[in-house]
Amino acid sequence: MTEIGLIGKKIGMTREFYKTGQSVPVTVIKFDTGRVIQLLSKEKNGYNAVQIGFGKIKNSKLSKQMKGYFAKKNTEPKKVLKEFRVKSLENFKEGNEIGIEIFKDTKFVDIKSKTIGKGFAGAMKRHNFAGLRASHGVSISHRAHGSTGQNQDPGKVFKNKKMAGHMGDKIRTMQNIEIIKSDPENNLLFLKGSIPGSKNTQVVVKESVKNVRKLTMSEKIEKIEKLKKIPEKKKK
Question: Fewer CB within 10 Å, N side or C side of the chain?
Answer without folding.
Answer: C
